Amino acid sequence: MSRRTVMVLAPAFLAACATGQGGRTAPQASDTARVEAWLRAAKLENVPFTQTWPNGATGGGLLTYHAGYLHLNYSVPHKMDLEASGAHAVFKDSQTGSETRMGLAHNPLGVLMGNPITLSGPVTVTDIQKPPGILQISLTRTENPSQGLVTLIFRDAGGVLDLYEIRILDERQRTLFIRLGEA
Fold it and tell me: Which UniProt key words apply to this protein (predicted)?
């Protein structure tokens, strides 16, 4: 590559790196817009879910989600409740009687709690995968990607998205899986 070519391309390359859009092609931008629209319109009410914690333990119950709000009502392994809204979450464990309040600003789950949801600015799309019939998109906080990663996996049939799995990778590189639908 000639020095002149490098000088001409350098500003465009640096701008792409600064915005995190260097590898995003038009189809990826389109897929990001589809997922963003899905998240903004989502009205999941009492959807059965199963969860696998990083240690391999499993549980489940019912999930309710809409932009800015998430409620996980566990029935297995015992009655527990996680309710997140905006920038905070409360976890209640009926077995121990404990109640834990947590901020979502430094939790990967927080990337899904915007209202309205935006998959740009404070949230960065780090990867999009499209095996046949699937759309998988990974999201992180733009300012501190080391805080974790959320991967949403959708069935993609005829352009219609159906969320069926959420993977949350925390700052310690532990993964939690939530699968929607009957176990």
Answer: Signal
